[in-house]
Amino acid sequence: MSLSAYLLMLPQWVTVSLLVVVTVSFSIVGFLIVHRFIPTKVRQIHNDVAGFVFATLGVTYGVLLAFVVIVVWEQFNEAKVNVQNESSTALVLYKNIVAYPDKTISHNMRDGFVKYCRQAVAEQEPTSVEQSAESAEIAINQLLTLLDGVVPDSGHEQILYTQILQSLNELAKYHNLRHQASHEELPSVIWVGVVVGAIITIGFTFLFGTENFWAHIIMMSLLAALIAVVIYVVIEMDHPSMGSVRIDTPHAYAKILKIEEAKR
Question: Angle at the Cα of 179 (from 174 to 183), degrees rounded to 5?
Fold first, then answer.
C-alpha cells in the first residue's frame, strides 16, 4: 500500500492536519536555520532579484499543480461515470434475466447474477476487496458459461438472449474498469515533481529579508499550508475508491439484492 493510500485510511481532519503540520514545520524550521546563518540585512540586498526568480518559480510550480489536479479530477469523473454505467447496466441485465420466457434458465441465470451482486457489494469492505473482486469475476464467467449453453427457442427468447449477452459483456467491462481505477495511482515521477517543487518553492522564501520577523513566518506558513491542502486534494482525487469522497459500489447491486430478499 502506498503512502497516499495509507493517509486516506485516516480521518480526513487527521490527514489534512498532518500534511499542514509537516509543511508548516518545514517552512519554520528551515527559515530559522537560514535566519541564523544569513542575517536579514544580507538577504534584503537580494530581494529584488529573489522576487523575480520566485515569481517565475511560483508560476512554474503553480502550473504543475494545476496540471496534476486536472488530471486526477478527470480520472475521478471518468471513474464516477463508469460506476454509473455499471449500475444502469446491472439493472437492465437483471430485468432481462427476470423477463426471460424459459423460467428454468431464468432462475439459473438469476441465481448466478445474485451471487455476483453479493460479491460486488462485498468489495466495499477494505479487508476483502481483492478476494471479492476475484469472486465477482468468477461469477461473471460462470454466467457467460451458462449463456453459452442456452439455445433460444423463439424469436422473443433470441432478442432477450442477445440483450442479456450484450449487457453481461458491458457489465464485465465496467466492473474491470472500476477495479482498475481503484488500483491506479499517479506515476512516481509526478509525485517527485510535486514534492520537490513544494520543497523548492517553500525553501526559496527563506532567502527573502523582511524587517518583521513574525510577518515573514506567517507568510511562509500560509504558503506551506496552501500547498499542503492542494496536495491533499490530489491524493483524495487520485484514489476514487478510498477517502471521504470515494465512489461507492454501484447502488443497483444493493437494490437488486433487496428485490430478491423481498421475493423470499
Answer: 140
Taking CA atoms, 97 is separated from 45, 90, 139, 163, 255, in Å, by 78, 10, 15, 9, 15
> 96 Cβ partners below 8 Å, 6+ apart?
160, 163, 164, 167
Its sign, for the CA torsion 210, 214, 215, 216, is: positive
Taking only the tens of pLDDT, the chain with its 264 residues reads 678 888 888 899 999 999 999 999 999 999 999 999 988 888 888 888 888 999 999 999 999 999 999 999 999 999 999 999 999 999 999 999 999 988 888 888 998 899 888 888 887 665 555 565 677 788 888 888 888 888 888 888 899 989 999 999 999 899 888 888 888 889 999 999 999 999 999 999 999 988 899 999 999 999 999 999 999 999 999 988 888 888 888 889 989 999 888 876
Cα–Cα dist 133/139, whole Å: 10
Residue 242 CA to residue 17 CA, distance in Å, equals 18
User: In terms of C-beta density within 10 A (0-12 exposed, 13-18 middle, 19 or more buried), how is residue 1 classed?
Assistant: exposed
- Longest CA pairwise span in the chain (Å): 92
| Closest to 180 (Cα-Cα) out of 253, 254, 83 | 83
CA atoms of 202 and 220, how far apart (whole Å): 7
Q: Scanning the structure block, which residue is given the C-alpha cell 465477482?
A: 136
Measured at the CA of 119, the angle between CA 116 and CA 121, to 5 degrees, comes to 110
What residues contact 106, with CB distance under 8 A and at least 6 apart?
Answer: 97, 98, 99, 100
The span from the CA of 31 to the CA of 207, in Å, is: 8
End-to-end CA distance of the chain: 41
